[in-house]
Each structure stands twice: as structure tokens, then as C-alpha cells.
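Quick start: load a record and inspect it. Here is Protein Wnt:
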Amino acid sequence: MNLLPSGICFYLSVAICWLTAEVDATWWYMGTLGSQVMCDNIPGLVNKQRQLCRQNPRVMQAIGAGMKDWISECQHQFRSHRWNCNTTARDHNLFGRLLLRSSREVAFVYAISSAGVVYTLARACSQGELDSCSCDPTKKGSSRDAKGSFDWGGCSDHVEHAMRFSQAFVDAKERKERDARALMNLHNNRAGRKAVKRFMTLECKCHGVSGSCSVRTCWLAMADFRRTGDHLRKRYNGAVQVAVNQYGTGFTAAHTHFKRPSKNDLVYLEDSPDYCIRDHESGSMGTGGRVCNRTSRGVDGCEVMCCGRGYDTSRVSRTTKCECKFHWCCAVHCRDCHQQVDVHTCKGQT
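Running the structure step on this input writes:
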């Protein structure tokens, strides 16, 4: 019987075959033995990762199920760029040979995936999906904010626990190496984890006579993951090219006119390819066939997206809802409107 879970395997900083939501139920029924066999057969894990994998099979399942969320966020952030966080299931990892480089795109992938592990795990804890964690147990008693005193209640997301597990698991392989790429990965992993914590917000519920707020019950909640994605996208824009310092323990800016990176910055070691043409060695999928905006002068414009190769135009029919009217009570009735639109797609390389 094949005890390895179904789904997509890919190599990231932890060299792990992340589990997808469609995990073979047989594996879960086999308990400890099943988790040991599964974890021992994932290629590339270091001993620390195998140990954590065996001890936390449900955590691994939760992380795998949340994988699609951070990949979707990555693709949203770069939907209009030459590199659009595209994935492929035909290679040994979701991003092909791109991850062998040390570019700013790889820096973003590591940061958003590390953030995704924290977000997914903290959410699973708060929703009672895991036996090993729940709501943040430190949020008890009373506290104060700018509006006055309040009582801790509800369910505060246990982000600290999620960050500790993510650091222990995701960083384990990199900590066995002391080269420049390992330092780069560790830095961007940490920046991703910190980004989730950055957007924790205090949410409160009022109690009192006639809706007065004489007593407040509050809890800390993670913001929507989109805010983390937006933040890391800005960090990508301002990513710092670095070189390892003379002691091999940290970074210096690769160019004298660059700032020294902070703990929140993304860092990278080498320039990116232009992603114009398909190139297996660099991990570039090219922009041939990508939809572009003929009237835009930005990165989504046909001139930039197509790298000067030109574009093809085709007319397609699209159906949209139109002339919507509200009918009492309570329905909205719309017509289906058909329109012909021009779609522009980049020519392939010649």
C-alpha cells in the first residue's frame, strides 16, 4: 500500500512534500506508524523536520491544506507582471528551477510561504482543528488600550505558537547550512513570519445597558491574509540586494548606495532574469500567450508584458449580468448581456 499522501510535492526551504487537502484517509487511520512511514519517505528532510513531522501529523495536514491560500495570494500580487508566481506540477517542485536562483522573486516566495504557514497554523488552532493548540492562553484577565480598560475574552489567535512551530520546522534545514543562500532564506522566512504578527488587531464586543460600552470583551485576531500579501509585495518592491559580511554571519548591502537591510526587508543575492522568454535553466516560463492591456503603459501593458515581441488580438464573446433590479422582497433579477471584446495576448518567442 502506498502510504505517501496524494498531491503535489515541491521543494522549498524545508525540502518537504507539503500535504494537500486531499490526503489519503487511510494514512490518518494508521496513526503513529502511518505518520512515521510518511515522514521517513519525504525526500530532503533533515532529522529535526522528520521528528516534528512524526510528532505533528495533523499540523502537517493543516499546513498542506492551507498551501493553496498563500500560492493564490502570491499569484494575486503578481497577476499583472511578467513573473506571475506561476506554478507547474510537472517539475520536482511547484516553481521549477526558479528556486535554484537567489533572486528577489525567490525571496518573496520564501517570505509568503513562511507567512502562510504561520497564518494557516494559527487559524487551525483558533478553530479547534488541532489537539496540540487552541486560543492564546496568555490573553486572560484585564488589560487597557487607548479607549480604556477591557476584559480578555473570545478567542485570540495564538500567533506566537504558530511562529515558534514555523521557525522550528521551516528553518531547520537552513540552520544546518551556513552559506549565503541559507542566510538569505532564514532572513526572508523571518520577515514573512513577522508580517503576519504585524497586522494583529484588537477586536472588541461591547456590553452594557442600551448598547452602552461600559464593559468591553476583546481578543486579538489576525487580519485577512491579503494585508500580509500587500505588505510583502511592498517589501519585494524595496528588496535589498546583499552580500554576506566578512564573518559569514549576516549581510551587507551589495552596493554602497543601497541601505543596510532591516529585519523586515526582503533580501536577495542575484539579479532576476527578465522573464520574457521560456528558459528552463532560470525557471522563466516566458510571457508568450499572456493577456496584456493594449492601452496601458504600465507593467501589464502589451509593450512591457510582451517584451517588444508584439501581440495577437482576438475577438471573444463575454456574458455579464446587467440591468439588475431589486424586487420586493427579496430578490435581484438581472439580464444576461452579451458583448464582443478584444483580447490581446503576447506573441511567443521566434
